[in-house]
Amino acid sequence: MYNYIFARSFKKREQKQLKFKWMALLCFSLIALSLCAMFKPYLGPLPAAYFCEINNDIRIDGSSATVFIASSLADQTEWIIRPYARKYDHVAMKRVNEWSVKSAASLLQCNQNHSVPAILFSNGGYAGNIFHDFSDIIIPLYINSRQFNGQVQFVITNKQSWWINKYQNILKKLSRYDIIDIDNQDDIHCFPRGIIGLKRHDRELNINSSESPYSIKDFRQFIRSSYSLQKPAAIRLRDGEKKKPRLLIVSRKRTRAFTNAEEIAQMGRRLGFNVVVAEANGNLSRFAETVNSCDVFLAVHGTAMTNMIFLPENAVFIQVVPFGGFAWLARTDYEEPAKAMKLRYLEYKIKLDESTLIQQYPLDHQVIRDPSSIGKQGWNAFRSVYMVQQNVKVDLNRFRSTLLKALELLHQ
């Protein structure tokens, strides 16, 4: 999944080589994507892609997982698309149905005609992990569909009904039509144009406004509208006022949990916070309301931090970074997106004595002594140790200054 994230653990020469390889792959992918978008359908076979925009009539045959395009060319052209946005991740792509895009002089007879464009995307990959739900599917879906103002038909492959139910507030806001489960269709669906796959920008949980008429600010406003969230901005504290800012402590039951969450809550109350402790599971709409009602969001690094999307503007976002080489992940997955969302970002890096790993491994074990050596073994090795086995007991005396800084930011 994330084998390349451990570049920071390598020597500088190795980092440069790795960077060069990924830049070359990115350039090749962009060239292939440009060809697909610009010269369709007048090109020969392409390598597997993840996105293609077609401005001609298309016919979608779910039984053969094929999109047909009319062409005057005698020779049929074809290329393969896996319609999921995390294009470099081979593990994710293995969980995504493969689709063919073919041009042909004669097309199949239509069984169902649609007057609006289609967007075909996959519900496979890492769907079900809220970080990937937003970064790989929902934000790309917003980027690609918002232009149609609801007049677009979603066509889904690898459908998971529970996923659609979970995010129905968003999906119904983007499209006025019931989603077509194309894998279970025998009919030939015809559309005036279509987008096959989803285009994703180069950073997690973000929108590059130089590539889109929309911004991450637009997306957050859209999300507030989708869930009818009432709080547009965090509280602004003034000296002498008795208002209490609301602090949300995100609890976890299994991994990377606060083992002293109640002590943190008690300290927060003494400092003047109205404290809420909640777990990010169950009903998404209710949790979105809880997050939106708060001024400070505190959590250990993990997928639950994705819920920062629901925070009001200028809220304080505190990421607790566990022990063991999390710097790259912490920055890329949450620090950079939080700052792009105009949240005030704070970070608390735990020390070894705040990690429960110290109770499981001797001090001379490589897990404790050399986390980079575990990282070099790959994502699964890193995850099984530092993400699955680790919980956090925050040093209250040391963490107190972070909460005081949050209060200071709310005064600005």
UniProtKB/TrEMBL annotation:
Record key words, sorted? Glycoprotein, Glycosyltransferase, Transferase
Give any Pfam family that matches: Glyco_transf_61
Task: Report membrane topology.
Answer: Single-pass type II membrane protein
Main localisation: Golgi
- Keyword ATP-binding in the entry? The reply is no
Report if keyword Ribosomal protein is assigned.
no
**GO MF term (any one):** pentosyltransferase activity
Localized where? Golgi apparatus membrane
Q: What is the top-level taxon of the source organism?
A: Eukaryota
Where does it sit, as one GO cellular component term? Golgi membrane
- Identify the residues that the record assigns to the Glycosyltransferase 61 catalytic domain, covering every copy: 214-318
Q: Could you tell me what this protein is called? A: Glycosyltransferase 61 catalytic domain-containing protein
